[in-house]
Write a structure and sequence with these properties.
It comes from Xylanimonas protaetiae. Keywords: ATP-binding, Ligase, Nucleotide-binding. Its EC number is 6.3.2.2. The protein has helices at 27-33, 60-79, 103-112, 114-117, 133-143, 147-154, 170-175, 190-202, 236-258, 268-281, 298-308, 310-316, 319-332, 335-345, 350-359, and strands at residues 8-17, 41-42, 49-53, 84-86, 123-129, 159-160, 163-164, 216-218, 224-231, 286-289, 294-297. It is an alpha+beta fold. The protein has a single domain (8-359), classed as 2-Layer Sandwich (Creatine Kinase, Chain A, domain 2), CATH 3.30.590.20. Strands 1, 2, 3, 4, 5, 8 and 9 form a seven-stranded antiparallel β-sheet that branches. Helix 2 crosses helix 9 (236-258), helix 5 (133-143) crosses helix 9 (236-258) and helix 9 packs across helix 12 (310-316). The longest helix has 23 residues, at 236-258. The two termini are 31 Å apart.
């Protein structure tokens, strides 16, 4: 790397809504008429979704501007079709998803059944630059224990099909049904990683390499590690916080690998359990402490995460921003907590929750 902070970019999947707050299957129309100024907008699996992406940037201020511009562009494009955009990881309102009419997506719908039919979920994928695949795999081998706290911070999907789920991130439950989703073993080398991917594709269970949905993976399109564990964040500040911590995790892991430090002893079954627990209780209960694999208050585990990456945050000039953003998050709650509060205030009107999220698309 150059000595400057690693570049970081964020892909956000966003929910299209009708003016009444229900999912709106209008992605095709929106994308057909989107103007160049609306930014890089793409299809996702369902017609009720849009995806935006920031360019790679080095400062958190630039990232916040790019995220806000992407969300504003998506809203402008959707508005031309009487639709709204919300950063919600699942729809609070019941839905029947509409698969995008592309051969690959339709094949996935046929092949995977209800797992694909119900896949109206929105994640946030953070891309952090790495020097090459060897460094990228060394990073993937070392960051697994800290991904569950990122899910807890971003949790933004407490409702599903018109009702409460008891989960802070029900998206993570729905997403985990894909055969390759979740944590991975230690690979040890780029060659071993690529061999594992080739073997998964060769099983015929998944359609192609793009369906290798590891919690952290080498990007097929960019020279990055892609962290895929998070819900799309309700507000811009939470997305910036997520990206800052993700970049610091990658930098910390790369430094540890360069120093010859071995990967942590983190069996996939423990990583999967930590992930489940983060999706269940978010920041409102205990998480698993990566140092002991025992339950500890979420505040303490998040504090341990910040301590783990403190040097990288400081060297990037992000430590004070992360401290401030975390303080604000603890004060207001993550997206799931705010959605539940809005539902209570509206006497259970989940369409009102969705519309309130759309109102706050550019907040933070």
């Amino acid at each position: 790397m150059t000595g400057e902070p690693r570049t970081v970019g964020v892909e956000e999947e966003l929910l299209l809504l009708t003016p009444q707050g229900s999912p709106a299957p209008r992605a095709r129309e929106v994308l057909e008429t989107a103007a160049p100024g609306d930014g890089p907008l793409e299809h996702e699996f369902m017609e009720e979704q849009l995806e935006t992406a920031t360019p790679p940037v080095r400062t958190l201020a630039d990232l916040a501007d790019a995220l806000r511009a992407g969300r504003a562009g998506a809203q402008d494009a959707a508005g031309a079709h009487d639709a709204r955009v919300a950063a919600l990881a699942t729809s609070p309102v019941a839905f029947t998803g509409t698969t995008v009419s592309r051969v690959r997506y339709l094949k996935a719908r046929s092949h995977f059944g209800i797992t694909a039919w119900e896949q109206l979920t929105n994640g946030c994928h953070v891309h952090v630059a790495v020097a090459d695949d060897d460094e990228g795999v060394a990073v993937i081998d070392r960051i697994g224990p800290w991904l569950a706290p990122l899910l807890a911070l971003s949790a933004n999907s407490p409702f599903w099909q018109g009702g409460a789920t008891g989960y802070e991130s029900f998206r993570s439950q729905v997403w985990s049904r894909w055969p390759t989703a979740g944590p991975t073993r230690v690979f040890g080398s780029a060659a071993a990683y690529h061999q594992a991917v080739e073997t998964l594709v060769a099983t015929g269970t998944i359609l192609d390499e793009a369906m290798v949905y590891f919690d952290a993976r080498l990007s097929a399109r960019y020279p990055t590690v892609e962290l895929r564990v998070a819900d799309v964040c309700l507000d811009v500040d939470s997305a910036v916080l997520l990206a800052a911590l993700a970049r610091a995790l990658v930098e910390t892991a790369a430094r540890a690998a360069a120093a010859g430090e071995p990967p942590p002893d983190a069996p996939p079954e423990l990583l999967r359990t930590a992930h489940w627990r983060a999706g269940r209780s978010g920041l409102d209960g205990d998480l698993l402490d990566p140092a002991t694999w025992r339950p500890a208050p979420a505040h303490d585990v998040v504090g341990a995460l910040v301590a783990h990456v403190r040097d990288a945050l400081s060297d990037a000039g992000d430590l004070q921003d992360v401290t401030d953003l975390l303080g604000a998050l603890w004060s207001r709650g993550n997206g799931a907590a705010r959605q539940r509060a809005w539902a209570a205030a509206s006497e259970g009107d989940l369409a009102a929750v969705a519309l309130r999220a759309a109102d706050g698309l550019l907040a933070g």
